[in-house]
Hints:
The chain is 39% helix and 13% strand. The chain is α/β, with parallel strands linked by helices. The longest helix has 19 residues, at 2-20.
Amino acid sequence: MKKTVILLLFLGISTAFAARKPKGIVFFDLGDTLINKVNFNDPKSKSHYMPGAREHLQTLQKSGYLVGLITNIPDEWGATIELKIETMKKKVAERWEEKEPFDWEIFEGRVIVPPKDELRKPNPYMFVQAKSIAAKDKLKVLFEGEDSVEVAIAESQGFGAYQVFRKGFSNFPSTGAVRRTAK
């Protein structure tokens, strides 16, 4: 009887843990991938989700994937990574034109920006940082971006990769394609 109870408890805990373990991490470029590129020097320039981006993020999360950002921002946005991220959030919010604000919380500490301009993409530095986040939990990783050079760099660093908004292809991959492409 005791062995049965212990086994059932173990199976319950194992099942609960397995249900919570993410399937992988999908990292995104920000500008022209999740949101349109904004000219922050033009007060009339507004920001919004790219077609299908919000739904894609929601579908990935519901399917058990974590999401993150790998995005270039300039040195003048802050002396530290934390300040750069806060400045980026503030600048996007100032130009945001959608009813609901951009959801930064879904990225839960998986926002990677260059510590200095020399380490901006296409330098592989940020991809190496993202890969180390995935490696901690032995998760597969995928990068989605609009720039073919950045997609190639991601692949060279061991990511699965998908170039969004290519003519003749879906704007974003299906969850099945994410599962097959992530490495």
